[in-house]
Amino acid sequence: RPVMQAPARQTLCSRLRDKLKAFREWIDPWCFVAGTLVATPAGAVPIESVRAGDLVWSRDPDTFLTEPRPVRETYVSHPAEWFHVGVDRDGDHRADETISGTGSHPWYVLTPGRVGFVPARELQAGDILSLRDGTRAWVTDKTREVAPPGQTFTTYNFAVADHHTYFAGQGGVWVHNVCGKLLDEYTVFHKAKLDELTGGGAPAPAQWDEAFDSILQKLKADSRVPENEYGDVIGSLLTNPPVGIPRIGTLVKSPTFTNTNKVWDSAVTGLRYGPDKNYGNRVKHVLRHAEDQPNRKGKHGVFDAGPKGFLKVVDEGWLLKQSDPSSILKHTTGVSPITGGPREVFVIEMGRRIGFEGGKAGAQAGLPTATKLRLIIDDGKDVLSAFPTVSP
Fold first, then answer.
1. Contact at 8 Å (CB) between 295 and 358?
2. Taking the model in full, what pTM does it have?
3. Nearest 5°: CA angle at 376, between 375 and 378?
4. Torsion sign, CA atoms 209, 211, 217, 223
């Protein structure tokens, strides 16, 4: 597995410091004005009346499943400027409502060539917006308002569990919240995982520790990121590492890779995905566990991260068990009938939803949520299978 050399490590430390500065300037003012409606299962409510523990409608950026999620924490901020965005819901090119908020608050756009979360200040007339009911709306116009010298506005926001999104305005425009996983990355890192990125789990050098500690201290002191989401923020800062630094959830060809023996290794954890008699390769085997299987109930669940996301979950679970042994709910050992070597089965508590019994269809049918990852490993590193599970 690639080992992070000192120059690359220093580059990453510098990048983290730069990103932290930009992040603090960016995260602080993500809010809407009083009176902005928020979609909840009980009906639309003004944003200033939302409280921790309330349920709001939220959409998963990976699966696009819309479901109620709890509010973790609420915030009030005082920016010196905000933007007024006209929203046309019926296609007559006239605004049906105006939503006002800070320029950095991300809105989800469906405009070809710029699909994804876009800061309000970068919205353009004609941009296509996504609404809670599955329909679309359009941006008609955008104006900027600056507070008089020495004065500020008052805006409101909140953190949403799991998906970190909600729906604002009368029409329910899909927007991102201020905290948690930035945009669509769901990787959680803490110190041991960062050390893992430095190569082989070797202790990080002093400058790495300093950079990491500095990030946590500044986030704790200067931003309103809930304590249980610090790890999410660190993960988000590492989603675009310098060239040469492996990304979690990515595969590289194993040194033993051939055209007939296609063996893949995780670029970060070193987990191997070798041949499979039914699917050709273990990657394809595990991929089956990211497909809807509505009639499959019991311990064997389905990843909700989708075909591109399940490898991240497997990597994350492997790193989590190494850095936090208390996350291991069950660990059994035996002999692999395939290789004759050791076989280990881990059940790891991920601390968040990673799937459902039956997949999306199971979720819609009300089947249980899976927060645990079951990993079956041969010979220390070979992935035999991996899937979400409801119980150990």
1. yes
2. 0.46
3. 135
4. negative
Q: How far apart are CA 82 and CA 267, in angstroms?
A: 43
Q: In this predicted model, what pLDDT tens digit does every residue of 300-310 receive, in sequence order?
A: 677 776 655 78
The answer to whether residues 100 and 89 touch, using CB atoms and an 8 Å cutoff, is no
Q: How far apart are CA 189 and CA 81, in angstroms?
A: 34
CA-to-CA dists, residue 148 to 33, 98, 145, 228, 320, angstroms: 17, 22, 10, 37, 50
Residue located via tokens 């930035």: 182
Give dist(CA 44, CA 102) in Å, integer: 21
Q: Identify the structural domains of the chain with CATH numbers, from first to last.
A: 6-26+185-237 (no CATH), 31-176 (2.170.16.10), 251-389 (no CATH)
Is the Cβ–Cβ distance between 123 and 175 less than 8 Å?
Answer: no
Q: SS3 of 383, please? A: strand
Q: How far apart are CA 173 and CA 170, in angstroms?
A: 8
In sequence order, the β-bridge partners of residue 98 are: 86
Candidate from 88-102, 123-137, 341-355 with smallest mean pLDDT: 341-355
Look up residue 303 and give its amino acid.
F
pLDDT, tens digit, 9 for 90 and up, residues 378-387: 999 999 989 8
Q: How far apart are CA 264 and CA 274, in angstroms?
A: 6
Does the structure show a pLDDT above 60 at 196?
no
| Per-residue CA distances from 365 to 55, 58, 360 (Å) | 20, 18, 9
Q: How far is the C-alpha of 186 from the C-alpha of 293, rounded, in Å?
A: 23
> In this structure, what are the phi and psi dihedrals at residue 335, rounded to the nearest 5 degrees?
-115, 130
Six-digit token pair at 370? 């899976």
Q: How far apart, in whole angstroms, are the C-alpha atoms of residue 240 and residue 221?
A: 25
* Closest among 92, 95, 79, 100 to 36, alpha carbons compared: 100
Residue 25's nearest CA partner among 104, 101, 116 is 104
DSSP for 190-222 reads -HHHHHHHTTTTPPPPHHHHHHHHHHHHHHHHH
CB-count exposure of residue 292 (10 Å: 0-12, 13-18, 19+)? middle
